Amino acid sequence: MPRSDSGQRRYAAIERLFAWAENITRLAAWFGMLLLGCAALVTVADILARRSVNVSVYGLVDLTQLLVMGFVFLSIPYGLMRESHVSVEFATDSLPPRALAGVKSLAALLGSAFMLAITIFSWTRAMQQVENGDVSQTLGMPFIWYWTPLLVGGLFSVVASLLHMVRFLLL
Predict the structure, then answer these.
(1) Residue 106 CA, distance from chain mean position
(2) Which pLDDT belongs to residue 2?
(3) Are 139 and 63 in contact (CB under 8 A)?
(4) Spatial contact of 41 and 60, defined as CB atoms under 8 Å apart
(5) What is the pLDDT of residues 109-148, one digit of tens each?
(6) 68: which residues sit within 8 A by CB, 6+ positions away?
(7) Which of 119, 125, 130, 136 could form a disulfide with 154 if both were Cys (CB 3.0 to 4.6 A apart)?
(8) What does the buried/exposed string (b/e) look like for 85-104 if buried means 16 or more CB atoms within 10 Å of the residue's CB?
(9) What's the distance, CA 135 to chain centroid?
(10) Could you tell me if 60 and 43 are in contact, meaning their C-beta atoms sit under 8 angstroms apart?
(11) pLDDT at 78
């Protein structure tokens, strides 16, 4: 069935918004991959320094925790945008298109709720640590540096899941 003119405009607007969100999350994922590469380089540098001159990279654990945590949470939104998460499709393969869209919308809504809960809990905990002035054990980095990629990635993940929900409902 052909779409009405207003339906086509609405669909085009959603597709533009979706493309914009995919580009933003792709950039976040690339930045996350850069962080992971830095974690690997710092770890290799530590191993080489310990083996050659018996000196360790000061604060290696603090650095690698920060870098790996940043990688993980900045990469999740892009995975959600690309629908590259694990799914069990044999249960939904026989559904008609509208029912399948409903199931996918519900899954996206549940994913959004889960990531929103993680983000809210993380925000609460991050603010407690800011108030307390908590810092990392070795380098003394403020813990907000650890929470920032988690919070940004969590918000991007909520938006990515909600966009999918809307897209599935309107297709």
Answers:
(1) 19
(2) 55
(3) yes
(4) no
(5) 999 999 999 999 999 999 999 999 999 989 999 999 999 9
(6) 35, 36, 39
(7) 119
(8) eeeeeeeeeeeeeeeebeeb
(9) 24
(10) yes
(11) 96
pLDDT of residue 93: 80
pLDDT tens figures, 56-97: 999 999 999 999 999 999 999 999 999 887 777 778 888 898
Dihedral, CA of residue 57, residue 58, residue 63 and residue 65, to nearest 10: 100
pTM here is 0.86
Dist CA 110 CA 105 (whole Å): 9
Residue 26 burial by Cβ neighbours in a 10 Å radius (0-12, 13-18, 19+): middle
The total of other beta-carbon atoms located within 10 Å of residue 127's CB is 12
Q: Distance between alpha carbon 28 and the CA centroid of its chain, in Å?
A: 8
Q: Output the CA angle 67-75-88, nearest 5 degrees.
A: 135
Residue 6 pLDDT level (bands cut at 50, 70, 90): confident
Contact 28, 77 (CB under 8 A): yes
